[in-house]
Amino acid sequence: MEEVLDIKKAIKNTIMETLDIRYTEFTRERVVATMPVTPKVHQPFGLMHGGASLVLAETVASGGSCLFIDMKTQTIVGLEINANHLHSISEGIVRAVGVPVHVGRTTLVWDVRIWDDKDRLICICRCTIAILDKPRDLNKDKE
For residues 39 and 80, is the Cβ–Cβ distance under 8 A? Predict the structure, then answer.
């Protein structure tokens, strides 16, 4: 795997660290991440919150999108995400598997599917990522 950024450093003090999301596969063809289902991702009725599924899905899509850009001059942001929640879960580990279905000049579209540790499909997501040019460093113009 070509290192596009220092993942351990990049996730420090982020939602990835808070929810213990870990990448287990990271290629242009497929990105996989896991997340434990504990009370910190539950809604008030003791089930995994749908928003936690969206965080996991966007983490997979955003991370994978970094493999398609020039990180020195470009950045990525989530543009749109939708989800169908198919099953509920209250404990265990969920695994998100993302594959790019469109890689364009200004957007990427990802299909992300979230499975429980019994291989039940929990959630299907589509996430659109925007590719943005980083702002020019105005200080360079003054040199």
Answer: no
Within the chain, what is the greatest distance between any pair of CA atoms? 59
Question: Environment class of residue 31 by beta-carbon count within 10 Å: exposed (0-12), middle (13-18) or buried (19+)?
Answer: buried
Is 58 marked active-site?
Answer: yes
**Domain ranges within the chain, ordered by starting residue:** 7-136
Kindly give the residue spans of alpha helices, DSSP state H, lying in the chain. 7-10, 15-19, 50-65, 138-141
pLDDT tens per residue across span 4-28: 556 667 778 889 999 999 999 999 9
How many whole angstroms from its chain centre is CA 49?
Answer: 16
Query: Tell me: domain 7-136, CATH 3.10.129.10, correct?
Result: yes
Select which of 3, 17, 25, 58 is catalytic.
58
| Average pLDDT score over residue span 105-115 | 98
Contacts of 75 (CB under 8 A, 6+ apart): 69, 131, 132, 133, 134
Tokens of 62: 């955003």
Residue with structure tokens 């925007």? 130
Give the model's pLDDT for residue 5.
57
